[in-house]
Amino acid sequence: MARDGALYVCQACGAVHAKWAGQCSACLGWNTLVEEARAQTPPGALTASKSSKARAGLAFETLDVETLPPPRIVTGVEEFDRVCGGGVVPGSAILVGGDPGVGKSTLLMQVAAAASLRGARCAYISGEEAIEQVRARAQRMGLGHAPVKLAAETALRDIVEGLKRDRFDLVIIDSIQTLWSDQHEAGPGSVTQVRAAAGELVRLAKKTGVAVVLVGHVTKDGQIAGPRVVEHMVDAVLAFEGERGYPFRILRGVKNRFGATDEIGVFEMSDAGLREVKNPSALFLNEGGERASGAAVFAGIEGSRPVLVEFQALVAPSALGTPRRAVVGWDSGRLAMVLAVLEARCGLGFGNKDIYLNVAGGLRITEPAADLAAAAALASSALDQPLPQDCVVFGEVSLSGEVRAVSRMEMRMKEAAKLGFARALGPSSGTEGFSFPVAGVSKLADAVRRVAENDFQSARKAPAVVGVRGGKG
Ligand code: TYD
Ligand code: MG
After folding, report:
1. How far is the CA of 103 from the centre of ligand 1 (A)?
2. Which residue, 7, 67, 141, 278, has fewest beta-carbon neighbours within 10 Å?
3. pTM for the full model?
4. CATH no. for 78-278
5. Ligand 1 mutation pick, 133, 214, 240, 269, max ligand atoms within 8 A of CB
6. pLDDT tens column, 126-150
7. Which residue has better confidence, 102 or 229?
8. Integer Cα distance of 211 and 229 in angstroms
9. Hey, where are the domains in the chain?
């Protein structure tokens, strides 16, 4: 029987057990359970439930009360504000996750500096670097004059007391994994500590109205280290991503209680910090030259903005018993599906071929509208037939081999036209009446035929021309 008051928390997945065991029954990890004293009821919750209102019983409200949108701290880093839903909401907690070295500290220093220059009271508390290091970096980025208050601290109690004493609008905690609470015995970075620190800071945010941004490192398998539990506690989770070798960094909303999660912010890492990329549509296109076989430009939408990006496929004979399927920037399950449809419905064979699919520029595409672009790139490579230079591709492919209409097609084509594209390979339904010529296909097999025959004529006929030949002359 467990000692009274003791709980055992898995350090890998955060599951709570009443008894110690060698293996966590939730994530099946070995030797991951660590004893944790049963948490006392959080002080905030206690006082709230003892208030006279709570004692009067559970009070219900109606939905039809007029509410104002939450006020926002507009930091001035537009790409960041957009992903947050139009600025940071006071009293909210945001977790920013990302690989080590991706630029989280750089981004958040820039956010704090920009917000402070617009009059918000900002603090940057680093548990990872000394004040001199943080200051030197800020000065190198040309932010030395911003009135941001710096501190280097890892003791949770000191941080919370300091934040109660000095009032701020926005506080950056870099990082949550370095904090430790003297109420718990586990080491810094353990699930117990991270959960305690996040819980305490979220409560502080709700109570005092300060917006708290927590930096979290990401483990090898892409989870915010240790606890997914922190993701449940905070109001927004933003992922900061970038491929090694590319300067581009994408800030992506994973969860947001105050905005949409499909928005992305695009940055470029330079010598003087992160530069905002306000119009990313042409960023992920390969410049110049003939388009080689295997390349297809996808007219995509990320959040509210159109983004054109090149899909590159290589289909090559395999020397291996099990051919390779390598994909960067797209979902491997989706690739398997598109390959199966190409094999089953379009007569292309990939059985003994290695397949590589790459999204140029380090962007990760999640839209189903990219199916047709991936299929066109694969067909183009398999048939060694390049697509026309001025053609964009979009459309969703179903298992039955149909090509379906996708959202906001007109917006995709307008952006393509702006960048010099003159035609599209896309669904035949829903694109009638557009000024942009679309080589419409209703089946994936039609698309493959068009690639094979290099036929990208729009289906629309010019009716007046028929019959003219019969005239005189
Ligand atoms: P950093 O913000 O420290 O990453 P994180 O906090 O996510 O671990 O960024 C580190 C990387 O960014 C480092 O490899 C150097 C690079 N960098 C620049 O290229 N230019 C700059 O102006 C700054 C500040 C960093
Ligand atoms: Mg850092």
Report:
1. 5
2. 67
3. 0.77
4. 3.40.50.300
5. 269
6. 999 999 999 999 999 999 999 999 9
7. 102
8. 19
9. 6-37, 78-278, 283-453
